[in-house]
């Protein structure tokens, strides 16, 4: 079959099915995403196999896995779809006051709650009919794929080494402090490095299995091991276990200040040379030029700058 004939047979629908099949590796899930029946997607897979002359997906014990040729073709298919979208798209106009567009933000729970509160208040003022979904992140969540496939518009993170395949801008830099119970022996007098080493600590489960956080990175560089006596499933739970205990929680100042107002807690300067905790937003090239996404990214940046001007009480 000639290259021209391949081009005639491969339409945008089949390209989209191909990309989704390699991402999901499951016909049923692709059918659900496309709001189609499973047999319809199975027919599309058979057509793709015939056109491309390759099984594309083969069955293993763990499920369906892509062939080597399929993986080589995937970036070309994605690039072709992006080019077609760009060619067919109408002039990009956006009015936040009238839009009903949904916006999807991936955010970790170690971000200070006051930041997202500020974001939501600003969206309600500027785009009252827009829908905002805040998606929780976790070690098993593939945020890069979600950005590439359009499931998320923006991801907020603070990993020391953000993926270089994404666009990035800084939202906020925040000091790292220690949060303890108000009646903790170190609450009034401060904490030395020896105190920190001897203390018992509460830590959340890691957010990424591949990236070490700022705090863990500094501890490793200083060859300092802390007694992580209590591990909790989220950052938001950690402050609630501190009252009445001798536990220490190391976190950002704005996060600590929020919970210090709600609970009998005290903020103590960290006795280690932690750098600022830097929060940034990440987005994919696919919506880099979109006026709607530019508005969202500008709003997120403005809220970060406003928060950075506020010095939380010690």
Automatic annotation (TrEMBL):
UniProt GO molecular function: DNA binding; DNA-binding transcription factor activity
Family annotation (Pfam families): HTH_1 (PF00126), LysR_substrate (PF03466)
Domain HTH lysR-type: 10-67
Keywords (A to Z) from UniProt: DNA-binding, Transcription, Transcription regulation
InterPro entries in the cross-refs: LysR-type_TF, LysR_HTH_N, LysR_subst-bd, WH-like_DNA-bd_sf, WH_DNA-bd_sf
PROSITE patterns named among the record's database cross-references: HTH_LYSR
Alphabetical list of SUPFAM superfamilies matching this protein: Periplasmic binding protein-like II, Winged helix' DNA-binding domain
Keyword Repressor: no
PANTHER family: HTH-TYPE TRANSCRIPTIONAL REGULATOR LEUO-RELATED, TRANSCRIPTIONAL REGULATORY PROTEIN
Family, per entry: Belongs to the LysR transcriptional regulatory family.
Name under which the protein is recorded: LysR family transcriptional regulator
Organism from which the protein derives: Allopusillimonas soli
């Amino acid at each position: 079959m000639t290259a021209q004939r391949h081009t005639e047979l491969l339409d945008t629908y089949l390209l989209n099915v191909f990309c989704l099949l390699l991402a999901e590796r499951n016909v049923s899930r692709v059918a659900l995403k496309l709001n189609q029946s499973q047999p319809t997607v199975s027919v599309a897979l058979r057509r793709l196999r015939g056109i491309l002359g390759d099984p594309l997906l083969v069955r293993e014990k763990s499920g369906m896995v892509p062939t080597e040729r399929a993986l080589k073709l995937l970036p070309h298919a994605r690039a072709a779809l992006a080019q077609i979208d760009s060619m067919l798209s109408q002039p990009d106009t956006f009015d936040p006051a009238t839009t009903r567009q949904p916006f999807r933000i991936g955010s970790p729970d170690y971000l200070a709650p006051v930041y997202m509160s500020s974001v939501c208040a600003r969206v309600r003022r500027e785009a009252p009919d827009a829908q905002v979904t805040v998606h929780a992140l976790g070690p098993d969540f593939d945020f890069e794929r979600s950005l590439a496939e359009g499931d998320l518009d923006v991801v907020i993170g603070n990993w020391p080494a953000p993926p270089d395949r994404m666009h990035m801008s800084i939202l906020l830099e925040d000091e790292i402090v220690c949060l303890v119970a108000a009646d903790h022996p170190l609450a009034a007098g401060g904490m030395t490095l020896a105190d920190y080493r001897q203390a018992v600590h509460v830590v959340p489960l890691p957010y990424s299995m591949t990236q070490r956080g700022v705090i863990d990175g500094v501890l490793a560089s200083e060859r300092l091991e802390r007694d992580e006596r209590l591990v909790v499933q989220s950052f938001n739970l950690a402050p609630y276990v501190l009252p009445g205990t001798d536990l220490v929680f190391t976190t950002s100042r704005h996060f600590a200040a929020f919970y210090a107002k709600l609970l009998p807690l005290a903020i103590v300067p960290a006795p280690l040379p932690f750098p600022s905790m830097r929060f940034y937003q990440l987005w994919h090239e696919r919506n880099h030029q979109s006026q709607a996404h530019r508005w969202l990214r500008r709003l997120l940046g403005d809220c970060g700058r406003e928060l950075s001007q506020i010095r939380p009480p010690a």
